[in-house]
Design brief:
This protein has a two-stranded antiparallel ribbon with strand order 1-2. The longest helix is centred in the N-terminal third of the chain and has 35 residues, at 56-90. The chain contains 26 helices and two strands. It is an all-alpha fold. The protein folds into two domains: 16-345, ABC transporter involved in vitamin B12 uptake, BtuC (Orthogonal Bundle); 370-667, ABC transporter involved in vitamin B12 uptake, BtuC, CATH 1.10.3470.10.
Length: 668
Amino acid sequence: MAEFISSGHVRTRNYCVPILFLLAATAAALTVMRVYDELHGASFWGAIWSAHSGDFHQLIVRDSILPRVAVTLLCGAALALAGTLAQQVLRNPLAEPMTLGVMPGAYLAVTVAAIWAPGWLDGRKELVALGGGGTAILLVFLLAWSQRMSTLAVILAGMVVNLLCGAVSMAIAWTHYELLQGVMIWGGGALDQSGWGVSEWLAVRVGLAVLPVWALSRPLAVFEAGDSTVRSLGISVQRMRLIALLVTVALAAFVVASVGVIGFVGLAAPIIARLAGARRVAQRLVLAPLLGALLLWATDEVVQTISAGGFFPGHLIPTGTVTSLLGVPFLIAMLPRLRAAPDVESADAARAPTRMPGWCLPLWIVLALATLSTSLLLTRSFHGWRLLARFDLLLLWGLPHTLGAIAAGALLALSGTLLQRMTGNPMASPDLLGVSSGGALGIVFVMFVANPITPAVLLGGCLSGAMVTLGMLVWLGGRTGFAPERMILIGVALTAFFQSVVGAVMASGDSRAALLLNLMLGNTYFVQPATAYTAVGVAFLALVLVPLLARWLQALALGAQFADGIGVPVIPARFAVLLFASILTAVSTLVVGPSTFVGLIAPHLARFSGARRPATQAWVAALIGGVLLGLSEWLSRQVAFPEAMPTGLVATLVGSGYFVAMLLRRRS
């Protein structure tokens, strides 16, 4: 595995101890203050060893505050250890339990049980969550097994299963919003405790999971040299990767079964530990769990302090939705120590065709035209299926929404292609830039300050948030030469921070959360004709400009040294590609919200079709993205008639299902 931080041969200062001390001091101070306020001067040790059954304050300290601290430390350590294992064996800094589909699978299982089998959750929520997470990872293994559990195959399968489970959960939440308030709070990572039972249950299982990690510490270190070196030493790459991922699944499932979904810790803690100075695998296996435990503990104490201060009266903020509050500053502060790009296996590992068949491009053009015609002319009414005969309705309603959806799909696909080509990372997608999440945060802001809330106000907030985020991305990236691996991690940090705010609003029970849910899922109801036609114009302009970047994209994918050697201006080229992709993402966000699936998958579908050169892949991906979102926009109006489902949600359901079927077919 090529290091994505400075080499171990370069003497750099180790920041692990100062970071750990700062987090521990912050969390401990806030905990002591809370215990002191609760006891009102009574003896702390007396509350622990001889709490009076009639003293409510002593019981709160013994059976609620202290167990919560214990559970928080165990969950943070388990998630960080799981993320360390996943990133090590997959050689990708973006791998974690969330992206592998474990947590979304567990949450989906609990959501389904809450609606159709609530009796299963009565004392058996842990088993339901474990079953869901286990099923999700089994699907990932099924999809990736034929590729010998290669890095690229596991990453793609995990991302698709993650998106599919998340889309199904959001679809259920959209149709049963009032019934799922409790599940949504639990799904946000609620750490409240009423005794020591959960902490004891979790401690035993995490302790057992640590045993195979200790046994695998030496073989895991060999993975840094690449799969070929591992095989030359007589170690089975497939078996080792499977064992490590099974331990990852177990750790993540234990956490989900205990407290719900907690994001960002499994992703950020291993990266921060590595950037802070933990070079060797053995060091990271110790320091990352410590960092994850303290990071989650400090975050939880900050959240409780804010809640107790009355800033959000009457609203419960699950800690799992805001874990990025403290992690993001540390991650961004450490990014200047980043040196080299992560080593991700070549896209050739997916066995894409070496040449694009001559019928591929015409086929997607025909499908795009068929999608446009079907969406404009064929619709449902209260009297059944019919052709739309009124030309005025076609121009007023059908044409803007259809063209807007197709253009947004093309823009997302183009942005994803640019990012994956520039970074060489198959997990790079427009949402990782943070621009779409910034647009969503702008929507949240205007929802709480604007009166009345109109479509124009919402679109203005979305555009403002996206542009502010773009400015932050360019400012932070400019300090590091727009290195692709740094830009991805900056985008991940900004996305996590913005999503923590949006997630807190979603789980707070506020009456505006239902409207926000529709907007987050990509509902095109609020799209104005001017916005839709602007997106069409930008899409056509982008298709014309992409070939001008083809040489840069091909050179950047081979590394900065190679690109510089053939005369490519690396920093200006990176900046141009990043700015171009960000603008395309911002425009698409105005139409379909922070939709993520198309930008991730369309470039891979284009490559599987044989489109290998940058310009060709971009054009084919744009057609695929347009077909996916255009067809989804039409289906969103027909499936639940007379209701209209969010277009982004339908796109994820249809597209991820198709992608899973395609992987299974290629497996045979």
